[in-house]
Amino acid sequence: MLDRASQNVAELAPDCAPVIEFKRGLLDDGTLLKGLVDENVADLVMSNGVFNLTTDKAAAFRSAFRILKPGGRFHLCDLCKVEEPVVDAAAAA
Ligand SMILES: C[S@@+](CC[C@H](N)C(=O)[O-])C[C@H]1O[C@@H](n2cnc3c(N)ncnc32)[C@H](O)[C@@H]1O
């Protein structure tokens, strides 16, 4: 994934390459990404299809929110298992 991302930047947005950096780390290894990403630096944390693969969801969320600035945005797109039927809020309104 990191190789593909690097290739995409090089091909699709070469002007952005000098300011884009990819780092490899685990969200749930207990480090909270310390030593990899400073805290309170991110305006946006965005994840697609990663959190469902973590073994420690609480640690993964702590990692994300440690690096997020106060008032920053957290966008999460993922799979989840629901314990009860999901209410269709739009239909119920
Ligand atoms: C289904 S891919 C999604 C990748 C990308 N977000 C996308 O939409 O194409 C899941 C990614 O999560 C990464 N991943 C799995 N467990 C992880 C963990 N504990 N911490 C960080 N990344 C993890 C995998 O290495 C893989 O790159």
Kindly summarize this structure in a few lines.
The protein is an alpha+beta fold. It is 28% helix and 18% strand. The chain has a two-stranded parallel sheet.
What is the helix fraction of residues, given as a range? 25-40%
Biggest sheet statistics: 2 strands, parallel
The CATH superfamily appears as Vaccinia Virus protein VP39
Structural class: alpha+beta
Name the CATH class: Alpha Beta
User: How many individual domains?
Assistant: 1
CATH topology grouping: Rossmann fold
List the helices and strands and how they pair.
Layout: H1 2-12, E1 42-48, H2 57-67, E2 68-77, H3 89-92
Parallel strand pairs: 1-2
Bound molecules: S-adenosylmethionine.
S-adenosylmethionine (SAM) binds next to loops.
What labels describe this entry?
93 residues; alpha+beta; Rossmann fold; 2 strands; binds S-adenosylmethionine
Describe it.
The chain is α+β, with helices and mostly antiparallel strands and 93 residues long. The chain has one domain: Vaccinia Virus protein VP39 (Rossmann fold). The chain contains three helices and two strands; from the N terminus they run H-E-H-E-H. Strands 1-2 form a two-stranded parallel sheet. It binds S-adenosylmethionine. S-adenosylmethionine binds next to loops. S-adenosylmethionine binds at residues 1, 26-28, 48-50, 53-54. This is Methylase involved in ubiquinone menaquinone biosynthesis.
